[in-house]
Design brief:
Elements: H1 9-15, H2 20-32, H3 35-42, H4 46-60, H5 76-100, E1 106-112, H6 114-131, E2 135-141, E3 152-157, E4 165-177, H7 180-185, E5 198-201, H8 206-215, E6 224-227, H9 231-239, E7 244-247, H10 249-257, E8 269-279, H11 288-304
Parallel strand pairs: 1-2, 1-3, 5-6, 5-7
Antiparallel strand pairs: 3-8, 4-7, 4-8
Helix pairs in contact: 2-3, 2-4, 2-5, 3-4, 6-10
Length: about 325
């Protein structure tokens, strides 16, 4: 008898189990009662399924199908095997679902400021709740005291946060946005056309100055501008047709997708700010915050896929 650890035990175990690909193909074919429908579900050809299942039956030394026509007819042995596999696959899906839900139940508090809260998190909150209905998100106002509040903190900052664990960081690429109605009423053909509109901003105009230098639009003094208290108000003012704001995928992707904003010019610049998601302590591997962080990273990747640049005029 072979001793454990000599390399033969895994091979013995494999011989005791059927080919997993064959099992999956047979389960799909028997459930659909059609090689064609099973092929469509699995993304392979019906001919390949039939060839693989012929080999699978030889390995089992059993005949599972009664002929090869359509619809599929199972032999008595095939019917018994199909019924047992259905129970096994049902249990497997249930166990796998339970495993994936570990660490996805409970309360999670997030401290977030007005801009990220209103322009990034709130538009995506319903999607998060639908995906993880057993996680209760509690949104807290971001503290300026330097003491982290909440399990996670969402921050826009020019400086790397100190004394905190940084779990996610994203650069902010800025481009001009305006309402489609404003663009259609007075089309933009060249950068100088922006002089007919109000440039909306929440800083001292530095971001627009940087963008105008890159776009060769001249000094900011030649443009009408209006300062608002935060980026959220600037973007919302652009939605309402009050002028042109600088926004990013983080602050405007949902509005671009909804057709509430459009991008008149392709030139862009990077903000001195970055988006950070932090915590005041190290997170355990199965902690609820890690579920949120994984989802946030996915959302940021998807947001950057939004094509922001539409045709001019």
């Amino acid at each position: 008898m072979s001793k454990a650890g000599n390399g033969n035990v895994p091979n013995i175990r494999r011989r005791q189990l059927p080919n997993p690909d064959g099992v999956a193909l047979f389960e799909a074919a028997s459930q659909h009662i059609s090689f064609a429908n099973a092929a469509e579900e699995l993304g392979i050809s019906a001919k390949k399924i039939q060839k693989s299942l012929a080999s699978f039956q030889r390995d089992l030394k059993a005949v599972l199908f009664d002929g090869g026509g359509a619809p599929i007819k199972l032999t008595e042995v095939g019917q018994i095997y199909s019924g047992q596999l259905t129970e096994i696959f049902t249990d497997l899906r249930r166990v796998t679902g339970s495993l994936r839900k570990q660490g996805t139940k409970g309360r999670l508090s997030i401290a977030v400021g007005a801009t990220l809260g209103s322009l990034w998190l709130m538009p995506r909150l319903k999607q998060f709740e639908q995906r993880w209905p057993d996680i209760e998100l509690i949104l807290l106002p971001r503290s300026d005291s330097g003491v982290p509040s909440g399990d996670l903190q969402m921050i826009l900052s020019m400086h790397r946060p100190r004394d905190r664990m940084i779990h996610l960081s994203a650069s902010i690429e800025l481009f001009p946005v305006c309402s489609p109605a404003l663009l259609s009423s007075r089309p933009f053909n060249v950068i100088g056309d922006l002089q007919r509109f109000t440039l909306l901003h929440c800083d001292q105009g530095e971001e627009w100055r940087k963008w105008l230098r890159i776009a060769e639009g001249g000094p900011l003094d030649g443009y009408r501008s209006f300062k608002l208290s935060n980026a959220s108000l600037a973007v919302q003012a652009a939605v309402q047709g009050h002028g042109v704001a600088l926004a990013s995928h983080i602050t405007a992707s949902h509005l671009l997708n909804a057709g509430k904003l459009t991008v008149p010019f392709k030139e862009s610049t990077f903000s001195p700010h970055r988006m950070y998601i932090t915590s005041g302590r190290e997170l355990s591997p199965k902690a609820l915050p890690r579920t949120f962080l994984s989802w946030a990273a996915e959302q940021l990747r998807d947001g950057r896929k939004t094509p922001p640049f539409g045709p001019r005029g």
